[in-house]
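In response to reviewer comment 3 from the previous cycle, which asked for concrete evidence that the modeling workflow produces usable outputs, we include below a single protein chain processed end to end. The sequence was submitted unchanged, and the resulting structure tokens are shown without manual editing.
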Amino acid sequence: MTALWANPEFIRNVRSQLRPGKVIATACICAAISIAMGFGMSHQSRTAAGPYGWGPEVFQVAVWLQLLMLAAGGGIACINSIHREKEQNTFDYQRVTRMTPLELTVGKLFGAPAFSYFVCLCVMPLAIFGAVMGKLKFSNFVTVYAVMLVASEMMHVFALLISLLTVKGSHTAAILLVLVLLWGTSAGRGPSSIFQLGPCGPFYAAQVAAWPTRDDTTVTKAAETFEVPGAVDVFFGQKIHHVPVLLAIDLMFAAWFLLALVRNVKRDPNYYEIYSPLQGLGLAIFVNLLFVGFFHWQDSTPLEAQSVLLTLNILVFCCFGLVMLRNRERVRRIIRSREEQGVSWLDVTWPAPLMIAGTLAAGLLVVLGVAEGRNPQVQWNANFAVLRSLFFMAWIVRDIQFLQWMSLRRGKHALVTGVLFLVIFYVCVAILMAPLGMYSMPERAPFSAFFVPSAVYLLDHGAWAIRPAIWGAAFVAQWIFIAAFVWLQQRTIEELNSSAKVSVSSPAPAYL
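The workflow returned the following structure tokens.
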């Protein structure tokens, strides 16, 4: 791998964004704004805040300016990077260059937001001036920029991945997604938060910039270490300062996004595969480990805790299942590549084995977390906790298997049609549940488990004792549905297999 300053893609982006005239004009504008802001804030706040009171304010304003340029501006630049090249039909030329996928990815990652980095450097003198005049601790100064750079890089990798995967007409939605994610990951932790984890977005650097700076500031002493209020996380019962946690989590997510980029950046768009099956499974388990490790167990009962964690897993495994789905063209290529071996049992049941393994592992991880984190005085039944996880597993596998069968059917938008059918099904069921008293009458609640994942939220010892046979029948019914969708999928694959054999065996037409 070549060095960054010798990377052709990085050099191309830097030359196009940092032209001499643009650089000089930007530097002059930043210098004028910095001088005016420093002079105005120092004279306006001196009488009210004391000799050092305006220094931290200047530093915080400078940090906010740098965050807006690096996090938001750099993220939008990464979104525009590959998307614009696709529209200009120049991205295909980059895919066939001699650069490795990692070199091309790194060149775009640091080259696309090159102008944002330059603006941050231009504002740096204002930040240093505020830090010096405010007697800011050097450790706080380093922490601010460590958080800013690491969290911003994580957002840049994610934005670049979104730019690679976006199709025509979804560019605006991609930008809104990145901006919403920036806001969501930087929101403060409230008293009713379900996780004992602070914000992990780049804008947390602004909160670090507002930390106490002088030794005479009152802080809380716990476990023989000084802790800044609101800057401590709890991971599996252990208190950890939030900054190392933020850096570790952002670096790990950046590594996951980078892996997806390197896998696909030089592939044809028709052959994109974000993760391999095992990599996708590993990412789902990693996310669940974070869920369980940082969960706030003291504010909920065991049933509520499991319900919340399994609800969060709906989004995780729906995304995981959608990514693992195979369309007709991909199945046809797999069949052609196995001329002698034929279709395997894994092809027929795909992605049920992978979904079963993932949801079962996540469900058991949640059960173990609830068992360890609950209040010892609260009643706990591990058997019903495992049964709720099994209901969750069967429900997710049922829907994903239905979508897999739909995606193999003929039609331009087979998968979209399948998702639409699922939405219509759940809307109709929700409309019928209320008048039939499925949730208001305990004796009718087990019947709802045939259609929706109500068992995750309602199943306990009392509900089971009313009608155990109905709960058991609802659980068995899910596997009957799964078997039916697998059978339909097998028939569809057999049709594809027969058509593939005919196309291979048919002789080419002779031309005179």
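The longest helix spans residues 468-505. We consider this sufficient to address the reviewer's concern, and the full set will be provided in the supplementary archive.
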